[in-house]
Amino acid sequence: MVEKSEYGANWEGFIKMLLNRLEIPTKEDIISLHGRLDKLEQLLYQKQPTAKKKRAKPTIRRKSASSIFLAVIANHPKGTNFKTLRAATGFNDKKLRNIIFRLDKIKRIKRVKRGIYKKA
Length: 120
Prior knowledge:
There is one protein chain. With 120 residues, this protein is mainly α. The chain folds into two domains: 11-45; 65-119, Arc Repressor Mutant, subunit A (Orthogonal Bundle). Helix content is 51%, strand content 9%. It has five helices and three strands. Strands 1-3-2 form a three-stranded antiparallel β-sheet. The protein is elongated and about 100 Å long. The relative contact order is 0.09.
């Protein structure tokens, strides 16, 4: 004897039973999930009340490392050495070497002799 299932013996019933057993979502399930996701997105993007209005902090414009370096060199018209530059700026050796290389390449400083630099 053939067992009767809740889906019937036709092709549509077989497909519904297969989808159910394999836990594959149907079109209705996906539409329902999209509706729930839309509701969640609307809740997330709703304007939330704020307790206090925050004042915007004024932005402080900081000098670049190269401009600090050039300001120190400008104080020494005859030129200054690497040790003095390191002490005045507080930069580490690698950063100072990179700044010196870059500024020398664009002709903003001049190498007087080894380790002595002045503003061009």
